[in-house]
Amino acid sequence: MAETSIVREEIEQFGKLAGDWWDPKGASAMLHKLNPVRLGYIRDWIDQHWALDEHSRRPLAGKTALDVGCGAGLLAEPLARLGAKVTAIDPTPELISVARDHAAGQGLDIDYRVSAVEGLDGTFDLITSMEVIEHTADPQQFLNDLAERLAPDGLLIMSTPNATAWSKLITITLAERFGAIPKGTHDFDKFIAPERMKQLLAKAGLKCLDVEGLAFSPTRGLHLSEDLRLNYLLAATK
């Protein structure tokens, strides 16, 4: 069993992207396009899970949130605006530096830390980890560590590419070849199918509440879908 979820080569790869992380037309442009879809899913599930007012502008007020593999803060900042007390971690120092500077410029108080999840104390009401598990050394241990930090009645939301030929074609063969995603970002052998993910979650003591596809079409762009072939989001609890 791996002692850490960190893969050193991944840190080097993502550290190179820090400079233009917040540029919607830069190397991380795909993350900017993914973010609104992710946020829609998160908002729907926090409202469902805690029976919140779907019209509230700060539904996470009074709750703690942990964003694991936060990059330079694309998701952490909206979570803070939704009212959460946010801790956001990433093992890449360059990204955390950019995240802190950007949050300060937005007047947001986010606790950014250069850390892996196993190095973190405490529990959190909401844990998010988007497009991270496929970059870890040991997915099962990573989920075990997330489960340990999820508070009672807490909610875990994740996203990851599916282990399908379609996902390999779109994510690696096309997106990386033509520059939509930086080359070398993904390793298809580390992609996880939903069925296997549910097994890993169960072994970590987590119950999968929902799995929803993240699909792409020329007319709609990236959107939530019943089609799981490309990428999917999931919600889980203890």
What's the name of the CATH homologous superfamily?
A: Vaccinia Virus protein VP39
Class by SSE composition = alpha/beta
CATH topology: Rossmann fold
Q: What is the 3D shape?
A: globular
Q: Domain count, please report it.
A: 1
Q: Which sheet architecture does the biggest sheet show?
A: 8 strands, mixed
Strands of the widest sheet, in order across it, are 3-2-1-4-5-8-6-7
Overall pLDDT score: 90
Give the topology string: H per helix, E per strand: HHEHEHEEHEHHEEE
User: What's the total count of β strands?
Assistant: 8
The number of helices is 7
Distance between the termini: 22 Å
Beta-strand portion reads 15-25%
The CATH C-level name is Alpha Beta
The whole-angstrom Rg is: 17 Å
Question: Percent of residues in helical segments?
Answer: 25-40%
Uncertain segments: none
Name the CATH architecture.
3-Layer(aba) Sandwich
Structure description:
InterPro entries: SAM-dependent_MTases_sf (IPR029063), UbiG_MeTrfase (IPR010233). This is Ubiquinone biosynthesis O-methyltransferase. By secondary structure, the protein is of the alpha/beta class. The protein has one domain (8-161, 190-237): Rossmann fold. Helix content is 34%, strand content 24%. The protein has helices at residues 8-15, 29-50, 76-81, 93-106, 139-148, 165-174, 194-203, and strands spanning 64-68, 85-90, 111-114, 124-130, 150-161, 207-217, 221-225, 231-237. The model has no long low-confidence stretch (mean pLDDT 90).
